[in-house]
């Protein structure tokens, strides 16, 4: 019996290895993979079990906006736990849920005023898709049910969210609802054919959407789901003008536009939401999670426009919106989100992100200038990606696809964590990062790049 005994380091390694199945675990590592154990955290830093300090380059998992170790978050959470830790959202509401719904509605663009709380990003996406399908059923057109997703898009790990995820879709044998989804090809301007302008690439990507709608039929398509920046796909920023033009096409075909802001929301690009403030669009539905609580507690939200709500409500006959979770509007998570927004406002974290973004992006772009093995660097706000150039004279293709891991390993030695994705490394540090900490981070990254470059005969 482990209760009451203080586990040793060895116990923890063994118990985690033997009993804990982590997300995206490789089958070859079942029962044998060991993960770095993080013990403590403060600001932008994490400490491992041996006491070594790291800069948290990935910001947890794109989520630790206000940084670690906030006493007032701990106080808020504990006070809410003692006052009202749980109430069924089927029967009741609570002060934190009502206040937070209002605070979110005040910060969303246009008429997006109705908030359905979820347990995280995947369930927010699931809810958005179910809302689109529900609306069409209510409107008497159940055949308008297909969702358009995009290659490299990531929307989560529930059956429906995974169905519309384009990332790794060819490599997985996980079952998906194939009849519900069609995908648009890669929108990454870096992958445009040689000699093609970015404007022409944008035209081609917009045409991809038009052609797919023409092929499938607008009367069969319920929604288009798109991250403003495809983050897990490698921080892919679509070409300028793409967002507005695709939204217009959706509107013209009565296809709901779902903007998945699970990463880009809550300050990552210096705004509460990026859809309108950065990309000039007011979608029909926005999904968010992660930065909503800065990762202190799990919470997501699906935010629906008045227009959509009205269409659902005013369709003939009564029905029930059979969607929701035991922990929808969890009062403790909602209290944490309110405090998170309060802190972000008091410290003007959005203004801070806007202020440090040029320096962050400048240091990122210097990496491309300094290292010939880099094919592309890209990002916006406090989001960045380094992609290794193809066609290098490395020992094998394998070394190319391991670039992200190699860079992460080199940086980890020097106290910086990154997130490797094949031939890319991505990062999204806590939003409170200061200019000198940005330098600390990129100085290590450059030292790591210098080491890794030696393995590649460019
Ligand atoms: N949508 C986007 C854009 C994401 O990046 C993620 C997670 O990384 C999700 C949805 C899924 O969120 P969660 O892991 O909280 O379910």
TrEMBL record:
<keyword id="KW-0663">Pyridoxal phosphate</keyword>
<keyword id="KW-0670">Pyruvate</keyword>
<dbReference type="GO" id="GO:0030170">
    <property type="term" value="F:pyridoxal phosphate binding"/>
</dbReference>
<comment type="similarity">
    <text>Belongs to the class-III pyridoxal-phosphate-dependent aminotransferase family.</text>
</comment>
<dbReference type="InterPro" id="IPR049704">
    <property type="entry name" value="Aminotrans_3_PPA_site"/>
</dbReference>
<dbReference type="Pfam" id="PF00202">
    <property type="entry name" value="Aminotran_3"/>
</dbReference>
<dbReference type="InterPro" id="IPR015421">
    <property type="entry name" value="PyrdxlP-dep_Trfase_major"/>
</dbReference>
<keyword id="KW-0808">Transferase</keyword>
<dbReference type="GO" id="GO:0016223">
    <property type="term" value="F:beta-alanine:pyruvate transaminase activity"/>
</dbReference>
<dbReference type="InterPro" id="IPR015424">
    <property type="entry name" value="PyrdxlP-dep_Trfase"/>
</dbReference>
<protein>
    <submittedName>
        <fullName>Omega-amino acid--pyruvate aminotransferase</fullName>
        <ecNumber>2.6.1.18</ecNumber>
    </submittedName>
</protein>
<dbReference type="InterPro" id="IPR005814">
    <property type="entry name" value="Aminotrans_3"/>
</dbReference>
<keyword id="KW-0032">Aminotransferase</keyword>
<dbReference type="InterPro" id="IPR015422">
    <property type="entry name" value="PyrdxlP-dep_Trfase_small"/>
</dbReference>
């Amino acid at each position: 019996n482990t209760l009451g005994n203080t586990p040793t380091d060895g116990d923890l390694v063994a118990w985690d290895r033997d009993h804990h199945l982590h997300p995206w675990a490789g089958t070859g590592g079942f029962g044998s993979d060991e993960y770095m154990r993080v013990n403590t955290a403060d600001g932008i830093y994490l400490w491992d079990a041996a006491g070594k300090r790291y800069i948290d380059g990935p910001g947890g998992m794109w989520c630790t906006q206000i940084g670690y170790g906030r006493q007032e978050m701990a106080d808020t959470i504990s006070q809410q736990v003692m006052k009202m830790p749980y109430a069924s959202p089927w029967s009741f509401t609570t002060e934190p849920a009502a206040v937070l719904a209002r605070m979110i509605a005040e910060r969303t663009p246009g008429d997006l005023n109705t908030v359905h709380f979820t347990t995280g990003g995947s369930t927010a996406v699931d809810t958005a898709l179910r809302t689109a399908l529900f609306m069409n059923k209510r409107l008497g057109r159940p055949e308008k049910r297909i969702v358009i997703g995009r290659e490299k898009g990531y929307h989560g790990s529930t059956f429906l969210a995974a169905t519309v995820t384009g990332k790794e879709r060819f490599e997985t044998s996980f079952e998906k609802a194939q009849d519900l989804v069609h995908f648009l090809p890669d929108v990454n301007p870096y992958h445009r054919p040689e000699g093609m302008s970015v404007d022409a690439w944008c035209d081609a990507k917009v045409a991809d959407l038009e052609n797919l709608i023409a092929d499938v039929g607008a009367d069969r398509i319920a929604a288009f789901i798109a991250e403003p920046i495809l983050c897990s796909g490698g921080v892919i920023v679509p070409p300028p003008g793409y967002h507005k033009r695709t939204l217009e096409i959706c509107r013209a075909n009565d296809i709901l536009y779902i903007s998945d802001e699970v990463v880009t929301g809550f300050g990552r690009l210096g705004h509460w939401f990026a859809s309108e403030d950065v990309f000039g669009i007011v979608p029909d539905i926005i999904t968010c999670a992660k930065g909503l609580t800065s990762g202190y507690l799990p919470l997501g939200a699906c935010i629906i426009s008045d227009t959509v709500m009205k269409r659902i409500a005013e369709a003939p006959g009564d029905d029930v919106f059979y969607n929701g979770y035991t922990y929808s509007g969890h009062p403790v998570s909602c209290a944490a989100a309110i405090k998170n927004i309060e802190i972000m406002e008091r410290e003007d974290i959005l203004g801070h992100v806007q202020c440090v973004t040029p320096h962050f992006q400048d240091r990122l772009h210097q990496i491309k200038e300094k290292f010939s093995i880099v094919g592309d660097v890209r990002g916006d706000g406090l989001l960045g990606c380094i992609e290794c150039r193809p066609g290098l004279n490395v020992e094998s293709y394998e070394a190319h696809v391991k670039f992200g891991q190699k860079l992460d390993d080199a940086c980890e030695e020097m106290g910086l964590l990154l997130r490797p994705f094949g031939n890319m490394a991505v990062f999204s540090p806590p939003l409170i990062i200061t200019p000198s900490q940005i330098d600390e981070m990129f100085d290590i990254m450059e030292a790591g790049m210098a080491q890794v470059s030696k393995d590649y005969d460019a």
